[in-house]
Design a protein that fits this description.
Helix content: 25-40%
Number of strands: 24
Strand content: 25-35%
Number of domains: 4
Largest sheet: 7 strands, antiparallel
Radius of gyration: 38 Å
Distance between the termini: 75 Å
């Protein structure tokens, strides 16, 4: 019975230790903290866990492709919120509008990095040893290998081995030669052992290390990088400071003091569209031209930014994301004073560039004025009396506005978007017929507002460019890591490691030669290659063959 009890105790003993004091029969073993930590580390750094985390990271990135992201296109995010008012609060809680900076995505990413480090570093050591290793010793029974040939010759064993050594070296084998014979009862000159295909192990080594390089590069870019978007109207400029951005996101270790002090002035924004065929109305050319000053006091340089052809200044890239129209509007209050004047960016809502925007005139008297409406680039009135836009180009623009009076909410310091009105303390202005007043203005037209509120005029149209300013430190590192990973993967897939042994021994006045080969991967023509080696050995062909 004692022996049976001991065997049972050993069977349930935890890895790394046996039962601890106080454990009774039938009780589970007590696992110490270090033992539990070692077990958790082994689970986390296993290749299976690394693959599962890699799959989890890929799945976690899917919402970032399906849901508009705040740091990429805030306009689409705003449109999504308007279209899905019930779903958007849940998306906010889950971080769906900022997937790649959300805590749950960062947790998966960090776990994957730790898992890969614990998984790759030990394997890297193993691969490095394999690359430096010499060919394995000659087996005792070569005839048991998949490819084997034996023959007799009158040449001396040493001559045969010299020829084999030269022949295999010429075929890019790594060659070692053993003095004496392989283990066994026979005596003879010795053996030649050779191996090639070490680059396959190098490919494995490069592939695994490259995964870490990619992760480190992405992490550096996320921690020290930044990204912002800004709308610049023709004739206006932009300085690379935080206050100039419409939106700005940065990594945890990036700050406003790290922004390069460049500025740019937009002279012209050119947007051309297809005018014929099925692609009519589709963008044909987006180009922003102007001047850029790398730093205060330096000379300005001309620039031309197109889609996928950014401007690079001091390691920071300026991309052209799109364009739109900025109607030039003048608002006069009831006293005839100019309360607002200038171009106002209206944001496109569809492919025909029907755009939405607001105008705020907080200095108007006797009441503050706000305007909200649509800009139609090529307005055509339908049979129902409603104007629609035929084409994205501003050939015959029309500006439709609703008028609000009251408190715009700018005096109490409440933050609000320049593209939306805070309507909590605003009232719609009514026309003479008692219906809601809706203005429809053509270029050059001025309309007086009722009740002595003033007037508004549509003076012209300018275009604006929407830029994204982004800096990704070591941005070349992930790309280089991917190139190395693909190179290493191709090497590990297509390089075939092979081992060859040649023994020669004197027996009965003649020399018995044995040649055997072993492929470490399937699919090679091992027998044909071995027959060729044997044929050359029979002919006595060496380095001069």
């Amino acid at each position: 019975m004692a022996a049976t009890s001991t065997a049972a105790d050993e069977a349930v003993a935890p890895p790394g230790g046996g039962r601890h004091e106080g454990d009774g029969p039938g009780r589970p073993p007590t696992v110490s903290g270090p033992e539990l930590a070692r077990w958790a580390w082994r689970q986390l750094t296993s290749m299976r866990t690394a693959l599962l985390l890699l799959l989890a990271l890929a799945l976690a990135a899917v919402p970032g492709s399906l849901v508009p992201q705040q740091g990429v296109d805030s306009l689409q995010v705003a449109q999504f919120r308007l279209a899905h008012p019930d779903l958007s609060p849940w998306f906010d809680r889950l971080g769906m509008f900022s997937v790649y900076s959300s805590p749950w995505f960062a947790a998966v990413y960090l776990l994957l990095m730790v898992s890969l480090i614990g998984c790759v570093v030990p394997r890297t050591v193993v691969y490095a040893r394999a690359v430096r290793a010499r060919p394995p010793r000659t087996p005792r029974r070569l005839d048991r290998l998949p490819a084997y040939v034996s023959y007799e010759t009158d040449r001396a064993p040493g001559d045969v081995l010299d020829t084999a050594e030269q022949l295999l070296r010429r075929r890019r084998f790594r060659v070692d030669r053993d003095a004496g014979s392989p283990p066994g009862p026979d005596t003879g000159a010795g053996s030649v052992r050779a191996e090639k295909g070490y680059l396959r192990e190098t490919g494995n080594l490069v592939f695994h290390v490259s995964l870490l390089v990619v992760l480190v590069g992405v992490a550096v870019g996320a921690l020290w990088g930044y990204r912002g978007s800004v709308i610049v109207v023709e004739g206006q400029g932009f300085s690379n400071t935080l206050t100039q951005y419409d939106e700005f996101t940065s990594g945890a270790l990036a700050g406003g003091d790290s922004l390069p002090p460049f500025s740019l002035a937009l002279d012209q924004m050119t947007a051309e569209f297809q005018s014929e065929g099925e692609q009519a109305g589709q963008p044909k050319l987006f180009e922003a031209t102007g001047t850029v000053t790398p730093a205060p006091g330096e000379a300005a340089d001309d620039f031309a930014i197109r889609v996928n052809h950014p401007l690079t200044v001091d390691g920071t890239s300026v991309f052209l994301l799109g364009s739109g129209y900025a109607p030039e509007i003048t608002v006069r209050d009831g006293d005839g004073r100019v309360a607002f004047s200038g171009p106002v960016a209206f944001l496109p809502t569809d492919s025909s560039y029907v755009s939405e925007g607001v105008v705020k005139a907080p200095d108007a008297q006797p009441e503050q004025l706000g305007f909200e409406g649509l800009f139609l680039p090529w307005a055509v009135q339908g049979s129902d009396g409603v104007s629609r836009s035929l084409f994205p180009e501003a050939a015959d623009p029309e500006l439709g506005l609703f008028v609000y009076t009251g408190d715009l909410g700018l005096d109490d310091g409440r933050p609000q978007s320049v593209f939306a009105l805070d309507k909590d303390d605003l009232e719609l202005v009514e026309g003479a017929d008692g219906e809601t007043l809706r203005l429809a203005l053509a270029v050059g037209e001025r309309v007086r507002l009722p009740d002595g509120l003033g007037s508004v005029s549509f003076d012209g149209v300018k275009e604006f460019a929407r830029f994204q300013v982004a800096s990704t430190p070591l941005g070349w590192l992930p790309l280089g890591g991917l190139v190395l990973a693909v190179t290493g993967l191709l090497g590990s897939l297509f390089i075939r490691p092979r081992r060859t042994w040649v023994t020669a021994r004197a027996e009965g006045g003649r020399t018995v030669v044995e040649v055997a080969g072993l492929d470490r991967v399937t699919g090679g023509d091992l027998a044909t290659d071995l027959d060729d080696v044997v044929a050359r050995l029979r002919d006595g062909e060496g380095a001069t063959a």
